[in-house]
Specification:
This protein has three helices and eleven strands. By secondary structure, it is mainly β. The radius of gyration is 17 Å and the shape is globular.
C-alpha cells in the first residue's frame, strides 16, 4: 500500500528529497511511525486582536497564543486505519514553553472524491481543511491550505475564510546540517499574519503495532482498535 502522500503527489513524489520521501512514504501496513524531536527557533503570532482567537484554539488543540524562541518540541506521525476505514496519519505536535505545554493536533486522510489530502484539525476533527501539496524546489514537501469545512454533530458548512487563515507550510531536509527543517505561516487575506513557526528537528523511526499507537495522538471520537 502506498502512503496517502504518494497518492496525492503521484509522480511528483519522486522529486522529493530521499529523506523526505522516507518521512512521508509509509502507510499503516508498514507498522512504522516517525517521531521528531527538535527546537522551534521562532514561534510567533500576529497583532493583538488575534490573541483571543488563538486562545479559543487551545480548547481543542488548534494553535495557541504563546510566542518565543528556541522552544523544544516533538511531532508524532503514526499511520493507521480509522474507524471509517480510511488510511490516516496523525500529526501530534507538542511545544514545551517555559510555563506550559501547548499542542497542535491533526489527522490527515486522502479523499478519493476530492483527489487530495484533507487535514482534520483538533481533538474533535471539527475543522476539515483541503490541502494542495507539491514537491518544493529544495526537495521539501510544500503544502497550502484551501477550502475549510466545519462539522459539529449534525451541523456542517463551508467555513468563511474571513474568520480563518491560509496555511503555507514547507518541510525539507537540510543536507548541510543533516536535520529536517519546518516553516509554517498562517495568514488571513484581510488581517494579515496570524500565526507561525520555524524550526529544526531530527527523526527516529520506530516499529509499532496498531494496538501500540498512543491513544492521545488520535481524535477523541476514535475508539481503541486492538
Amino acid at each position: 500500500m502506498t502512503s496517502i502522500y504518494q497518492r496525492a503527489l503521484g509522480r511528483d513524489f519522486e522529486n522529493l528529497h530521499p529523506r523526505i520521501q522516507e518521512r512521508f512514504g509509509f502507510s499503516s501496513r508498514d507498522h512504522r511511525a516517525s517521531i521528531g524531536r527538535g527546537v522551534m527557533e521562532k514561534v510567533w503570532y500576529g497583532r493583538a486582536f488575534t490573541v483571543p482567537f488563538l486562545y479559543l484554539g487551545t480548547v481543542r488543540n488548534i494553535m495557541f497564543p504563546q510566542q518565543g524562541e528556541q522552544i523544544p518540541f516533538t511531532i508524532e506521525n503514526y499511520a493507521y486505519v480509522d474507524q471509517y476505514g480510511r488510511e490516516t496519519v496523525t500529526w501530534a505536535r507538542k511545544y514545551h514553553f517555559t510555563n506550559r505545554l501547548r499542542r497542535f493536533d491533526a489527522t490527515m486522510i486522502y479523499s478519493q472524491s476530492k483527489q487530495k489530502i484533507v487535514d482534520y484539525l483538533g481533538t474533535h476533527q471539527h475543522l476539515a481543511v483541503e490541502l494542495e501539496m507539491s514537491a518544493a524546489k529544495n526537495g521539501g514537501m510544500h503544502l497550502r491550505s484551501g477550502n475549510q469545512f466545519f462539522y459539529e454533530k449534525w451541523i456542517g458548512f463551508k467555513f468563511p475564510m474571513l474568520f480563518s487563515g491560509y496555511a503555507d507550510v514547507c518541510e525539507w531536509f537540510d543536507d548541510e546540517i543533516e536535520r529536517f527543517r519546518i516553516r509554517v505561516h498562517v495568514t488571513n487575506p484581510v488581517f494579515g499574519r496570524l500565526f507561525g513557526y520555524e524550526g529544526v528537528f531530527d527523526v527516529d523511526y520506530i516499529q509499532v503495532s496498531p494496538s501500540e499507537i498512543p491513544q492521545d495522538v488520535k481524535p477523541l471520537r476514535e475508539e481503541r482498535r486492538d
